[in-house]
Amino acid sequence: MAKLELLPAVDVRDGQAVRLVHGESGTETSYGSPLEAALAWQSSGAEWLHLVDLDAAFGTGDNRALVAEVTRAMDIKVELSGGIRDDASLAAALATGCTRVNLGTAALETPEWVAKVIAEHGDKIAVGLDVRGTTLRGRGWTRDGGDLYETLERLDREGCARYVVTDIAKDGTLQGPNLELLKNVCAATDRPVVASGGVSSLDDLRAIADLVPLGVEGSIVGKALYAKAFTLEEALEAVL
Ligand SMILES: O=C(O)c1ccccc1N[C@@H]1O[C@H](COP(=O)(O)O)[C@@H](O)[C@H]1O
């Protein structure tokens, strides 16, 4: 059976690696240099880095040069997101050499553009389905953007390669992942799903790994690593 991929997260706000609670601006806890954090996850054995430009996602500026520097410094695969919403921001993101990008707001607000870039770039494009209940949220998770399952059906039709599914109610809370949501999304699509939000323990990761046969391919891990609930080495061992 395929093993669950783990994607330690580095979210960047105002030049710092931060974690938010429920993705709300103003709830930041700072963890210092994004490059140092990313290099630490790489040295601990990560095969992926989930790198987010939060200022670009919130529309409060950007950390584009810094996320490009971090991406270029990595020998591992990088999933890059935050503020990738048009040809220029997509070209800049892909030029960093990242393995794939994760689109959020654009999938809700400019579906024609997203269909076009999916057709052009295939599995270099993932779509982030960031939900409260079953309502998608965009623009830094501050605005409603439609129904999860209707959007999923449309993106499936357009050939979207994979989805990164975040339960906003869980994100940054260390309350455990929303396994029901993950199962429901896997039942609604045949595309791989990357889980995001709420991981607090090795048991949470094992529970997500149990969903690999249903279509879960990976899990983002953020707060739990920064809060030292477990080490990345322990996490990688737990999902072998
Ligand atoms: O990751 C977060 O904590 C987060 C919080 C608030 C907004 C966005 C967040 N992350 C990721 O940003 C992209 C969406 O950016 P955009 O809408 O395309 O500009 C997506 O990957 C979110 O999961």
Q: How many individual helices? A: 11
Q: Main beta sheet: strand number and arrangement?
A: 8 strands, parallel, barrel
Q: Name the structural class.
A: alpha/beta
Bound molecules: the ligand O=C(O)c1ccccc1N[C@@H]1O[C@H](COP(=O)(O)O)[C@@H](O)[C@H]1O
Mean residue pLDDT = 97
End-to-end distance: 10 Å
Radius of gyration: 16 Å
Helix content: 25-40%
Element-level helix/strand string: EEEHEHHEHEHHEEEHEHEHEHH
What overall form do the CA principal axes indicate? globular
Query: Could you tell me the number of beta strands?
Result: 12
Query: Into which percentage range does the β-strand content fall?
Result: 25-35%
Unreliable segments of 5+ consecutive residues: none
Query: For the largest beta sheet, what order do the strands appear in spatially?
Result: 1-4-5-6-7-10-11-12
GO cellular component, one term: cytoplasm
Subcellular location: Cytoplasm
Domain UBA: 201-240
GO molecular function, one term: 1-(5-phosphoribosyl)-5-[(5-phosphoribosylamino)methylideneamino]imidazole-4-carboxamide isomerase activity
Q: What can you tell me about this protein's structure?
A:
- By secondary structure, the protein is an alpha/beta fold.
- Helices cover 38% and strands 26% of the residues.
- The protein contains eleven helices and twelve strands.
- It has helices at residues 34-43, 54-58, 64-73, 87-95, 105-109, 111-121, 148-158, 179-188, 202-209, 223-226, 232-238, and strands spanning 5-13, 16-19, 29-30, 48-53, 77-81, 100-103, 125-132, 135-138, 143-147, 163-167, 193-196, 216-221.
- The longest helix is centred in the middle third of the chain and has 11 residues, at 111-121.
- The radius of gyration is 16 Å and the shape is globular.
- The mean pLDDT is 97.
- Bound molecules: the ligand O=C(O)c1ccccc1N[C@@H]1O[C@H](COP(=O)(O)O)[C@@H](O)[C@H]1O.
- Residues 11, 20, 23, 52, 54, 56-57, 81-85, 102-106, 128, 130, 138, 140-141, 166, 171 line the site of ligand LGQLAAA5.
